Each structure stands twice: as structure tokens, then as C-alpha cells.
Amino acid sequence: METKLTLRLRKDVVESAKKYAKQNNTSLSRLVENYFEQMKEADEEGFISKEVQNLIGILKDEKSTDKDIKQGYYESRLRKHSGKK
């Protein structure tokens, strides 16, 4: 079942999103829906996206655990978004 949603966004943000949608052969509605779906998945997976979850096995060595890899991921995100190195 679909429902209508009204959003108030800055004009420049909307224009940029429309351009991105057109370049990717999709609609603005589909972009927003996909974003909400990713948020839902991230919440269910402890803030690690499905794509990152799929990569965890690739990054493991014999000594690494899922906990070590997740901790490294969280630390790298914190550094990236806090501006700390």
C-alpha cells in the first residue's frame, strides 16, 4: 500500500535530488523510499548497512572477530564525522 507524503525542503536540495534521480533513471519518490529502507535496515543491523555487512567476511583474517571489525567500522565513522584523525 502506498501513501502520500508531503515534505518541506530547500529548493536547491530538491533540484539537486531531481537531477540525481534523472541521471540514475529513477524518481524522486523512489530515492526517498530507498533512503528510508536503508535507514530501517541500518537500524535493524546495528547501524551497519547491508552492503557493509556483506563485506565483513571479506575483511576478516584468522584473528579478527565480527566484533573487532564492527568496532573498527564505528571508529572510522566517528573519525570521519568528527573531523578527528
Could you explain the architecture of this structure?
- With 85 residues, this protein is mainly alpha-helical.
- The protein has two domains: 10-44; 49-85, no CATH class.
- 67% of the residues lie in helices and 0% in strands.
- It contains four helices and no strands.
- It has helices at 11-23, 28-44, 50-59, 66-82.
- It is elongated.
- The mean pLDDT is 76.
Main attributes of the structure:
single chain; 85 residues; mainly alpha; 0% strand
Order of helices and strands: HHHH
Strand content: under 5%
Structural class: mainly alpha
Radius of gyration: 17 Å
Q: Report the mean per-residue pLDDT as an integer.
A: 76
Helical percentage:
55-70%
What count of helical segments does DSSP give? 4
Unreliable segments (pLDDT under 50, ≥5 consecutive)? none
Largest beta-sheet details = none
Taken together, the total number of domains comes to 2
Shape: elongated
Ends: how far apart? Answer: 46 Å
**Total strands:** 0
